[in-house]
Amino acid sequence: NPDHTHLLVGLHPKISVSELAGKIKSNSARWINENKLTANKFSWQVGFGAFSYSKSHLDRVVKYIARQPEHHRKVKFKDEYEFLLEKYDVPYEEQHLFEDV
Predict the structure, then answer these.
(1) What pLDDT is attached to residue 99?
(2) Helices assigned H by DSSP within 1-101
(3) Average pLDDT per 10 consecutive residues for the chain, totaling 101 residues
(4) Phi then psi for 18, rounded to 5 degrees?
(5) Is the dihedral of CA 10, 61, 91, 96 positive or negative?
(6) The pLDDT of residue 23
(7) Cβ–Cβ contacts within 10 Å for residue 18, how many?
């Protein structure tokens, strides 16, 4: 996806989601920049989103991630993300969700 990525990970309870996201973002940005994969310096947005699923839904989540390109031809990522935040009663401020790319 050109504007977001999905990761499905099992996380040890001693590692926070914020710590994992920070390590993934910093190491991947460094690798992208060292390998000159973009014309300009690459950096991730400040924030991130994380959702948890029960083990019984694992196959469904894997299929959802695999179908992302097809899925986002029908539903914009930003619209879906806002829908999920509202569905699960996650408070947010519109101006903090996305930076213009």
Answers:
(1) 61
(2) 17-34, 58-66, 68-74, 77-87
(3) 86 94 96 96 88 92 91 89 91 74 48
(4) -60, -40
(5) positive
(6) 95
(7) 10
Sequence letter at residue 44: W
Q: Are 94 and 85 in contact (CB under 8 A)?
A: no
Q: Is 81 buried (19+), middle (13-18) or exposed (0-12) by CB count in 10 A?
A: middle
CA–CA gap between residue 22 and residue 56 (Å, rounded): 28
pLDDT for 97 equals 77
Q: 36-56: string of b/e by CB count within 10 Å (b at 16+)? A: eeeeeeeebeeebeeeeeeee
Which residue reads 């499905």 in tokens? 8
Q: Is the pTM higher than 0.85? A: no
